[in-house]
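Re: export button greyed out
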Amino acid sequence: MAAVKVAGAKVAEAPRTAGPSGRNRRYRLWFALPAIVLVTVFFLLPFIANGVFAFMQWTGYSTTIRWIGLGNFRLVNELGILRHAVVVTLIYAVTGLIVQNVVSITLAKALQQTNRVNTVFRAIFFVPVLISPLAAGYIWAAVLSPTGPLNTVLPWDHHYAWLGNSTTALLAVASIDAWKLSGLITLVYVAGFNRIPRSVIEAATLDGAGAWRRFLAVEFPLLAPAFTFNVVLSLIGAFSALDIVFATTAGGPGDATTLLNVAVYNEYGQGLFGTASALSFVVALMAIVTAVPLIGWLRRREVQL
Amino acid sequence: MKRYLRYVFLTLFAIPWIAVPFWLLLVNSFKTEGESNVLSMSLPHVWNAASNYATVITQGQYFTGLRNSLEVDVPTILAVLLLGSMAAWTYARSSSRSLRFAYYGSAMSIVLPPAVIPTVYILTKMGLEGTQVGYILVMVGTRLGIMVFLATGFIRSLPHDFEEAAEIDGASKWQIYTKVVLPLLAPLLFTAAVLLIISVWNDFFFALFLLQDSGSATLPLTLYNFASSSLHGLRWNLVFAHVILTSLPLLIAYIALQRRVLSGLTEGGVVG
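Workaround output, generated via the alternate export path:
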């Protein structure tokens, strides 16, 4: 029966997908061609070239580019740049992810209904999304400064330099990143909550599930598509983050906030293109290693409706 | 009662999250340098707004930055919307194996970070290093993926009938695309444009690598250069005035279109 169905579908679709004539197919290729060329030359090609440059000795002080195998990686490792930058980047990514999800899911739950007051709140919480990460960095550097508003309201130890301490500086820059994105993620979660059918919630309520239980057992699993999107988006964002660090700590104090991409820029700025490419290659590897299985794993957990 | 508590919670949360940072930004952009050093929330004793904003416009090269931003961002956004939706139409309506391969290739650019050093290398080989054209090409090439991905999904959910009817009536491919597909795509194009404008207008990363040593610095780069130009730490009053002016174009657009922006993002289903 199934086979018949498939065969039937194929017959019905054949003229459609192939197009009435070969001429049409060529026309269609023309429509995709500019995008294919641009993505290939300015995204895919550099991406592949990066995997090659990472293994090349290449500096701004010499015209020769030659193969040195893992030399670049060994060099940045011996200098203590590689491991440190990877650890810092991972802490940044996880911190950002936690802050952003706690804030966005809470706000989305509070703002789920579309009414006049909630519309105003949604509009207000969206404003940080509009400003550049650089601007966000400057604003929060001021809020967190020793004489800034945060220290003024805290009852203890006045004039604490939040961005001057290794630990708090890293947590702070990651949180600024989360602050900037949370307005958008809130809307994604609002849409996610509103896609959950009322009947499912009502059934859970009738079965005696309280609000917290309903959230954990029913709503959160059904929120998975939005959650997947957000986790991947913010991890990738964190792996290639740079702007906020440039506006707040410039990688410091010491190298406490030297994310991988900041390290890439530092090497690049010194004309060390080979080692910069090697660090950039690590960013790419991290993105592949985290994002691909994560998408698969989270997709499997998603509840299909 | 429950709803009332919710509004109290939202207001209390909005104070440190939104009100404090933006008030601090605004009020300090009106102060003198000495007064803004303290970064207090109080109103200025001496109003220095005119002088601050004038300094940003002259020394901070605000209008040069604004013009440069418009010159590269407008073509970038239009090109991504047009070329992305054209490609998406092909991908959505074709079953060709090689086109599917091309589709995955561009969708990959969503999850993979761009490799900036080879990009500089390629632009140098093409003689486009440090030029606006080079920057536009890179921005388009790295932003097309998300556009293609969103639009392909959207077009796949549209019925075939309109396009077939137009084809039977003898419309050319270009006519079908502009008269049938584009109007149906309008809601998605609007939402995609919003996301693109936010990401392209605020781009600092590529501008830093590709436009650094040229007179074509965009607003974020102008802001960074201006803020870092002072040797004795940040001059908060001036940095803040620059931040406000740099953010102003998007804020104005947002205030005008706010309702559509938010409903597009909430109901348009950015996520499948």
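Chain A has one domain: 79-301. The button fix ships in the next patch.
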